[in-house]
Amino acid sequence: MGHTKPNLSFRQMWNLSFGFFGVQIAYALQSANISRIFATLGADPHTLSFFWVLPPLMGMIVQPIVGSLSDRTWCRLGRRKPYLYVGSIVAVIVMALLPNSGSFNLTVKAALGFGAIMLMLLDTSINMAMQPFKMMVGDMVNEEQKTKAYSIQSLLCNAGSLVGYVFPYLFTWIGIKNTAPEGMIPPSVTWSFYIGAIILILCVLYTGATVKEMNPEEYAKFHNLQPEAEEDKKEKSNIFKLLVHAPKAFWQIGLVQFFCWFAFLYMWNNTTGAIAENVWGTVDAKSAEFQSAGDWTGVLFAVQAIGSILWALVLPLFRSEKVGYSLSLVLGAAGFISTFFIHNQYLLFVSFLLIGCAWAAMLAMPFAMLTNSLSGKAMGTYLGLFNCTICLPQIVAALVGGFLFKTFGGEMVTLANGSAVQSGQGVMLVIAGISLLLGALAVFGITTKKASK
């Protein structure tokens, strides 16, 4: 007979996820500033999207590995915490090095190569640090409190995003320069990564010090575990069979996911360049105006996070999940497409509040609808496989981004230094909007009938 896990206090659940606040600051800094960093180092706008292949690729590889390895890890530090510590330490080191990619007297090509390696390591380490928080809630929180625990984690996640997004703008506001010599990253960005790294390690150490994971005996007792059965081993070796026999909803929701994450890759990749041209009137990545656009991108992403929090309160009010999901994506599409026509930095708040509606639905609806279509058997394996529907579309979007920009972007513009740059990155946000509209249509093809077995 199984034992029920004891109830945890609010403070215990808060401590369990507090480190996620610091990890999310690092993730937000990466999302909002990577394109800006590589453009400043000298990356061609046509090749900019290729740098975005690395984050989703690392997510696809690292998260399942960390989950599998930590399932088998028991040591003095705990079960999940060793991976949390390793990931955080590597992230801190890389956050100190990445914004200095242009400060080592390297050639443009070498600086871009160094930056790409640092980005790969940063995303690997962030993924390694992120997964343990999700798994510790699953390990230690009982079924009745799990929704509340994940809500606390979501709150800390969004709060970390807000902080990370506004850091460069805030540092510029207090007087730290947001311009730098050619090929170097502005101090406002560099200091954002430094301070973010300090907050990350302090938050992780706090969670490490205040959370005591279950030992093997306690874990077995509260999870009613028996020795690993042959069936479990068989299940691990038959992932492809599970995919073949996956419920229709797995693939139908996966199609919606494809259009959604395809769209958001272009937001992360092209927002700075788009608003630099549409609002500040420049395509020169080395100009002060471009760096101001980079700071404002963080503010807009913070507005998107606020919109996401507010819309998440509205989504449960829809009687039909499909209607709520589809409408959210339509609103997001309107937000993306509107950026092409807006030339006032403050009016862009409306666009990104609308984009936040789509983001809220993307974080909540797919997993809710998928789990309603699963019987419970192999649930964890299916959810792990479902992560590929987040990563693969970003990789595809990154690979075809250069072609789409070259085909649909604007005319070539000659800069003061004689180099030529293609204008029109805003068209990529329009393509993102069209992709979300396709996703909104695909929602109505989802079959939500629960599996019988």
Name of the CATH homologous superfamily of the largest domain: MFS general substrate transporter like domains
Compute the average pLDDT. Answer: 84
Proportion in β-strands: under 5%
Tell me the Rg in angstroms: 22 Å
Order of strands, main sheet, comes to: 1-2
CATH-defined architecture of the largest domain: Up-down Bundle
Q: Encode the helix/strand succession as letters.
A: HHHHHHHHHHHHHHHEEH
Describe the sheet with the most strands: 2 strands, antiparallel
Structural class: mainly alpha
Low-confidence spans: pLDDT under 50, at least 5 residues? 228-237
Helix content: over 70%
The N- to C-terminal Cα distance equals 23 Å
CATH class of the largest domain: Mainly Alpha
Number of domains: 2
Global morphology: globular
The multimeric state of the shown protein is single chain
Q: How many individual β-strands?
A: 2
The number of helical runs is 16
CATH topology name of the largest domain: Growth Hormone, Chain: A
